[in-house]
Amino acid sequence: MLPELGHFALILALLLAAVQTFFGIAGPHFGRERWIAAVRPAVAGQFVMVATAFGCLMASFITLDFSVRYVAENSNSALPIIYRISAVWGAHEGSLLLWILLLAAWTLAVAFGLSRLPEKFGARVLGVLGFVSVGFLLFTLATSNPFLRLNPAVPDGRDLNPLLQDPALAYHPPMLYMGYVGFAVAFAFACAAMLEGRMDQAWARWTRPWTTAAWCFLSMGIALGSWWAYYELGWGGYWFWDPVENASFMPWLAGTALIHSLAVTDKRGLFKSWTLLLAIIAFSLSLLGTFLVRSGVITSVHSFAADPARGVFILTFLVIIIGGALSLYAWRAPLLKSQAGFEFGSREMFLLFNNILLVVALAVVLGGTLAPLIVETLGMPTLSVGTPYFEPSFLTPILPLLALVAFGIVASWKRGRLAAHKRPLLVTFGVSLVLGLALAFGVYSGATVLTPVGFTLGLWIILTSLLDPVDRWRRKLTLSRSIVGMTIAHLGLAMAVIGITAVESFTQERDIALAQGESATFGRYEVRFDKLADVEGPNYGGVRGEFNVLYDGRPLMTLHPEKRNYWVQRSVQTEAGIGSHRGTNILIALGEDLQGGKWSVRVQLRPLVNYVWLAAFVMALGGFIAATDKRYRTVKSEATEPAPGTAGGVLEGKAG
Amino acid sequence: MNKFIIPLIAFALLVVVLAVGVKHSPENTIVPSALVGHPAPEFNLPELLEPGTTVSSSELKGKPYVINVWATWCVTCRIEHPVLVQLKQLGQVPIIGINWRDEDDLARQWLAEFGNPYTHVPVDKEGRAIIDLGVTGAPETFLVNSKGIIVHRHVGALSLEAWKKDFEPLIRADLGTAANAAGSAAPGPT
């Protein structure tokens, strides 16, 4: 009964989304007050229906209703309850439903949220969001219905993919989708502005908190995915430039550019058409990511459900949504003129560079991800693009970008006057250089050319980020949430840079054959294989090793890597033993039984890799703080705002 | 022309690439098997339907046949099963259903309930033959030609469309060459 109820609720949600789209877009166009008034109830209704459908699917999982095909394929009576819940989004159909639920939730937040939008503009935003929702609901109902029954029911399910039976993976998709879907809000704001043919600084102020929030979720989602891949896939890296990883990284790059360009539009009324374009691109890349992962167009370790019928549907949807938005852009963007200009050396100029370099980096990742496909289209032999391409080509725009962060933070809006900031820039750079060199050659061994560069840039970002807040604090000026949030996010970036530099420079990894009682040394660390025992879990059995890690001969920790055999899925899974000591992440994974008591064992020591993941959460924290700044909550429309010139002047005065 | 149309043009180009990608992507994600083009591995396994006897790959030689890997714990196998029953009715080639890591009683019950499309049901409890075949999951289906060479591998549930598209031409070609070989030995078949 429940699955049918869920199915029915999903159909009702589709109808309500259609109502929301029609009244949201047609209402303001024809100036019908009553049509506009119908939009928000439709939003609320759609959310209730989608939540009902989602709840029904979750209930089917919790009660293990194996007459539902999706449940039978992705769970098992031996599956622990927490993974029964996360199994809801463990495969294609359910993750799509999760996407729809989150979209409905974001839409609800926009409709009844804190920032009161003007009636007409708000209706248009909701109309565009409704349109996106219609597309996804149609997609689910037509090609990926999770409520289909199995007749007859099976006695037990096929179990969730063991790779996904993991806490990080329980949170990873919801976070990632929160980010993807959040960019739909920025997209809807952009489309509404273009439909209206008007875009002012108030528009940027409405859009900023939503975009920042989406970006925060995406940052955390990417970090969780990377952390999961690190210890669950056991390949030992934190980033593989895999198409699916790239699919989530590209919207993040576009979103980062958008956040900065929105700041310029908000403060100075510049970059208007560029900001609109970035808002469209960020969401388009989220959709493209879904398309790449779900259509089987590009094969990847992470893609679970590949089905070309779905690919055709998503592609059509992409053409309508993105093609439509870009056509609107080609038509409307020429109307948007920026009144003001800016000087050489102003903050605007550095943010422009930031945008250009981020877009170049984005193009590099997009090109590398699509290259195999393009080559295939041209009929050439298949090609695999990996780290040797991505690393150098990604670093080319990113290193100058990191070097420019310090300038951008220190520079003032509107006016150049870079000479005035020469001293703090030089002093902080000098300190960073000395510390960077000391870190690179003093603490660890094995530095390359890029090691001191990475450390110096990271430290420079830290020092320059702190200049302004420390100065304000000493002069007992108020620190707004915007400034605190921005500073924290930039510190997060610096953390990531330093962490990545350390991992890339100082990682030690070896595959060794060890028998029980034997040990191997890695610099000052020693790894001893002590014991091997059988283990049994709820839905798996296997062996569990006991390894002691010693530092300078003193015992440090005991790690327990496992090799699991999942009964139902008949797959073997490696669970690495992971510990950390003085910032160095120690990973031990059991490989193959080499007979005669020996096992192949993979040992990896990665300094500061934890900081890379933590950095994403620091950035997200900064973003959340900035997004909750007071100034976004009390935004009125243009009519009650001071003229752009005065606003700029006031801000300029404060910043100086 | 205004410069704001450039993103639209770029997007149109991207769509062309993606559209070709969708067209090219295989109907089912086929993991290329190293075994396609190689002789089918030898096996000698107990027969499910006649306890006490065994089925061996040597007695199947000389005619094309299909190996289907199935189990009662496999949900997709249940979805695939009616297709196999239909194929048996077509009677083109014998279907050998290797029962993988399963309970004999459950397997017999399954065949009694849903119909038996298989000529032989070898029981592979340890999964030896399965490993030799390079199976990654159930169901999987292999076509072995009259020379004992694996000529096609299908991963996931078989459909009649896939059968018509991928299996039938290969079976016809194989029977054709076999007939020709017979024809050249015997005088004038026309």
Outline the structure in words.
The complex is a heterodimer of chains A (about 650) and B (about 190). Chain A is about 65% helix and about 10% strand. With about 650 residues, chain A is of the alpha+beta class. In chain A, a hairpin with a 2-residue loop joins β4 (about 540-550) and β5. In chain A, α1 packs antiparallel against α3, α7 (about 120-145) crosses α8 (about 165-195) and α14 runs parallel beside α16. Chain A is flat, with a radius of gyration of 26 Å. The termini of chain A are far apart. Chain B is an alpha/beta fold and about 190 residues long. Helix content of chain B is about 40%, strand content about 15%. Chain B contains 5 helices and 7 strands. Mean pLDDT of chain B is about 80; it is low at about 25-30 and about 180-190. At the A-B interface, α4, α11, α12 and α13 of A face α1 and α2 of B.
N to C succession of SSEs of chain A? HHHHHHHHHHHHHHHHHEEEEEEEEEEHH
Radius of gyration of chain B: 21 Å
What oligomeric state best describes the polypeptide chains here? heterodimer
Give the termini distance of chain B in whole angstroms.
70 Å
Gyration radius of chain A, to the nearest Å? 26 Å
Which descriptors would you attach to this protein?
heterodimer; A: 656 residues; alpha+beta; six-stranded antiparallel sheet; four-stranded antiparallel sheet; disordered C terminus; B: 190 residues; alpha/beta; Glutaredoxin; 5 helices; 41% helix; elongated
How would you summarize this macromolecular structure in one to three sentences?
The complex is a heterodimer of chains A (656) and B (190). Chain A is an alpha+beta fold.
Topology:
The complex is a heterodimer of chains A (656) and B (190).
Chain A: H1 2-30, H2 33-37, H3 39-62, H4 69-74, H5 81-86, H6 92-112, H7 119-143, H8 167-196, H9 201-233, H10 243-268, H11 272-295, H12 308-332, H13 347-377, H14 387-410, H15 422-443, H16 450-474, H17 481-506, E1 508-515, E2 519-522, E3 525-536, E4 540-551, E5 554-559, E6 562-566, E7 571-575, E8 577-581, E9 584-593, E10 598-607, H18 609-627, H19 644-655
Chain B: H1 6-24, E1 44-46, E2 54-56, E3 65-70, H2 75-90, E4 95-100, H3 104-114, E5 123-124, H4 128-133, E6 140-144, E7 150-155, H5 160-185
